[in-house]
Prior knowledge:
Blueprint: H1 6-13, E1 19-25, E2 34-40, H2 58-71, E3 74-80, H3 82-88, H4 90-106, E4 113-117, E5 128-131, H5 139-162, H6 168-171, H7 177-186, H8 197-204
Helix pairs in contact: 2-5, 3-4
Amino acid sequence: MINMREYEDSLINQGYNYIAGTDEAGRGPLVGPVVAACVVFDKNYKNDMINDSKKLSEKKREELYDIIMKDAISVGIAQVSAKEIDEINIYEASRNAMIEAYKKANQKVKIDYLLTDAMPIDTLDIPVLKIIKGDAKSISIAAASIIAKVTRDRILIDLDKKYPEYGFKSHKGYPTKKHIEAINKYGIFDGYRLTYKPVKDLIDRGISNIKS
Length: 212
C-alpha cells in the first residue's frame, strides 16, 4: 500500500510546516473551464480514504469533498475559462489555474512548500516539487484532485440543467460518442473550447448554429 504521506512527512522532517498540494481537473473536455485546487492540511493530518480522484466513485468524491473542506487548514479553488484555454492552450491554462488556486490558499496560511501533480511551476517564491502521478502518491495532491474534480463536475451538472439535450450530467463534457452526436445535432454554445478538434471540425464544416 502506498504511503500517501511520504512526501509530506519527509518535508516536515526537513523543517517545512505548511505543505500544499495542487492539481487540476478538466483538461480533456470539450466544454467548460479547467479547474484547479490547492489544499493544505495540518502536518499530522491523516485520512486513508483520500486518494486519486480518478480511483474514487462520484459518491465517494462528494463525501470526501465535504470532509476535506472541513478538515483542511486552507483550500484554494480557481478556474480558467474555455475562452482563455483557446487563447493560451490547455497546458498553460492548467498551470495558471494551479497558481491562482495556490495564491488563494496562501491567503489564509503562509505556504512554504508546494507539491504539484507533474506540473512544473517556477514562478513562485517557495520551493515546488512536481511529482509524476502525484495524485496517487501525495495526500495533499490527492485532496486537491478531489476538490477540483467535484467542483468542475458541479459546473457541468449545472450546465446540464440549461442544456439537457447534451447529456453533460453523464459525460461531464468529455468527447464521448453521445457528446459528439449532440454537438453535431444541436451545435455548440458559448463555453465550448473552439480549438479542440471535435469542435474545430464542426466549425470547419461550416456548422454555425452557435448558441449564446
